[in-house]
Fold:
Amino acid sequence: MTIFVPFCQYSAMFFGGKTLFGLDIGSSYIKAVQLKEKRSGYELELFDQVQLPPELIVDGSIIDSMRLVEALKELLKKARIKTKNVAISIAGHASVIIRRISLPEMTEEELSESIKFEAEQYVPFDIEDVSIDFQILGPKEEPGQMDVMLVAVKKDIINEYVSVVKEAGLAPVVVDVDAFALGNMYEINYEIEPGKNLALVNLGARTINLNLVKNGVSIFTRDSSLGSNIISEALQKEFNLSHDQAERAKRGEEVEGASHDAVSEIMRASYEELLTEITRSIEYFQTTSFHEEVSSIILSGGGAMLKDFQNYLAERAGVEVRLAEPFRNISIPKRFDRSYIEEVAPVAGVAVGLALRRPGDR
Structure:
């Protein structure tokens, strides 16, 4: 069973058909993925990305909507995107609330009528200020009880992203959550390992998304406001670099005034904060779930490309860490540069998960 909660769905008929592409609007890059569904599975139609100027999106909030619209239009032109329908996603510990809750057994229709009342005790905002959705996961061991995944997102955050996407000439038909998009990517590309807890970790520039799945079902999620930008900021401060210079140094390029060894030392020190944040979230899950163990981690996002970070995380967490392969079970036509796709694949985790969505699904 898969959980992907669409907070905001618009009429697919109004927007003309079911074809859509996944648009991952991060704080450092915008990524677009479009897939074609075939009898044998999925085929890659489109994959592209554009870099965003710094401070355009901070803590999940859009700071400069006009420049973001320009960046979206640049991506549409660069990738020659013709499809208007799009699936986007939201993240952020301050604007997205996800809770696995226990409720008396009832039908989906009955829960739809009572969900606002049920949600009030779990949502730390005015219930009228959030969009609410849910997914019934199934019965609990206790008779007459069921597990439900409850999701609430601030309406003003949804409206920010929807408005920007519309202003760029696109039609947002699905608004999802980053963590659930990762789960979608996982389900299509990996064999489910029965009984094992797997951590999907997406390390972005300003956010870490964690989605713990068991038997293909999301059982715990958490967003953090920390991201790989802390490395860039540390390099800027230490060597008096511009943002662009710090980004180049982070990628291992030569930058005047910042020796390779000195850069590596600063990066390793910055890794510590990221490693602590990820492992703390996993440990919190373990202590609140009767000490269930996490068997492995699948790492995605731009942070997955950081030199040696995968190995440091494996050592700290004490489990196997694999880089995400979002195109693992997706056919890649010859017109694509396969080596490039494979090199940057981990950054496409959320976008692939969104591209798999269809209007009206749950």
The domain at 8-355 is CATH 3.30.420.40 (Nucleotidyltransferase; domain 5). The longest strand covers residues 41-51. The radius of gyration is 20 Å.
